[in-house]
Amino acid sequence: MSESSTKDNNQARIKLLKGWFQSVLAEISPNAQFDDFIVNLIQGDASFRRYFRAHTQNESYILVDAPPDKENSQAFVDIAKAFSKKGVQVPSIYQLDLEQGFLCLSDFGDTLLWSQLKQAQSLGVDASPLYRSAFRELLLIQQVPTEKLPVFSKNLLHQEMELFRHWFCEGILNLTLSDHENTVLNKAFNYLGQSAISQHQICVHRDYHSRNLLCIEDDVTDESLTDSHAGSHIGVIDFQDAVNGPFTYDLVSLLKDCYIAWPVDQVKNWALEYRELALKQKILPVDDENIAQDKFLKSFDLMGAQRHLKAIGIFSRLYLRDKKITYLNDIPRTLSYLYQTAADYSELDELHAWLGANVMPDVEQKILAASTSLSNLNSSNKSVET
Prior knowledge:
The chain has 386 residues and is an alpha+beta fold. It contains twelve helices and nine strands. The chain has helices spanning 3-28, 73-85, 113-123, 128-141, 154-172, 179-197, 249-255, 264-280, 293-320, 331-344, 349-358, 363-385, and strands at 38-42, 50-55, 60-65, 93-97, 102-106, 201-204, 213-215, 234-236, 243-246. It has a five-stranded antiparallel beta sheet, sandwiched between helices. The longest helix is centred in the C-terminal third of the chain and has 28 residues, at 293-320. The protein is globular, with a radius of gyration of 22 Å.
């Protein structure tokens, strides 16, 4: 689909979404007048979904445009119900139309946990209270029954890591990998995949990081904010890909976040603090030897390596396929997590050596060169089309 066709399609869907909201507004808020609402696009995420805020001076809702041929809104609805039953602070679903891919949700505001963490970091303020609020929601998520959730299989774990090889190594860095280099990557992928499936398996959000968690303002009132959340102001979104998977997956997504980094010792302390909470609430089995501190931290680190391989691949794909350039800025930070973990565990020595020789030197310049090259190519193609 050409750029102009995409824009036309987007505009058509916005018109349909507004019309749908107008048709269901009386059921949501009987006294509200559609003409009083302003509808604004909110910064989208890494998927095909788009979010809009429909608001007046007194009311505010989030409208979701999730094209049904690209997004599974039924999964969002089902998991929202499951999470809500366990007390997880998720948006209320006021109205939905699965056939068109439209939803109207409660509005948690614009304050991402990420922005609060960045502020704490810049001011030198202890971020522990923010993470403890996020721990609270995570502990609730990890108590959600998993019978109806997809299994985070070894095959799926490998598919995620393959994104690194295809979209980053071959796509961004333009590397032609030798048989030996492919063997190095395969050995690392197999080891990380085996580590993941050997962990205790529980409900996994699968994208539990600071840009999918919202710090809810005290004056926001909504039926989804219950007394059980006194002292906790974290709202959880983007949970539709939840699976039955490794117990450290969401924790490492949160603490080794691709969008913000902390000193290694601080991350370790937060991880162990979570471990104690999970043990007290009997989310983790006390008699599992993998829960011992040293093995827990190893599982945590190795899970992080798997996730960071995936994330680097996704960031690369978002740029190369979807023309979303901002995610390129997050690749060096994510690579540094991967490189450090590979240095810490002898089983990943070959991966560490390969990264050190072929990827890490001047990585920012390599990424910039790739982005510049593609931008020039796109400009040239547009000139030819004209």
